[in-house]
Amino acid sequence: MMQKIYRQRLLISVVLITILSWVEIQYLTEGFNASPVSERSRHIYHLLLLLTIAGIGYWGWGNHPKKWLKSLWLLSYSGVIILLTISAITYVIAGSFNNDIIGFIRVIRIFFCSPMPFFLIYVLSKIN
């Protein structure tokens, strides 16, 4: 019974993360329907979306028998959220960044706002 519950939670989590990722790409980042919001508002939306995905993943891995997977999820998303927050504060204080740094931060954000980290941890869960 417990195995069925954690598998259902994993499935629900990956579906929700995929939907949120699609919405983020379509309406906040690069899609045809990308809304014309201010840069600061878009950054806040990205951070809120990342926090939401982190919470969904934490819930999804919560009942898994291998508890270190939930810890890995929490550690990786905490690190990314801290990195993005420090970058945002530095950007506000300094006023600008090198384009290479902005590109690197963008790639990290897009990766962690996708279902890819979830799938990678799922692959790790299959290793005995």
Description:
By secondary structure, the chain is mainly alpha-helical. The chain has one domain. Helix 1 packs antiparallel against helix 2, helix 2 runs antiparallel to helix 3 and helix 3 runs antiparallel to helix 4. The longest helix has 28 residues. The two termini are 21 Å apart. The model has no long low-confidence stretch (mean pLDDT 88).
Index terms:
128 residues; 80% helix
Layout of helices and strands, plus pairs?
Elements: H1 2-29, H2 39-61, H3 67-94, H4 99-112, H5 116-125
Structure at a glance:
It contains five helices and no strands. With 128 residues, it is an all-alpha fold.
Q: What fraction strand?
A: under 5%
- What would the principal axes of the Cα set say about the shape? globular
Instruction: Specify the number of helices.
Output: 5
How widely separated are the two ends?
A: 21 Å
- What is the typical, i.e. mean, pLDDT? 88
Helix content: over 70%
The protein's oligomeric status is: single chain
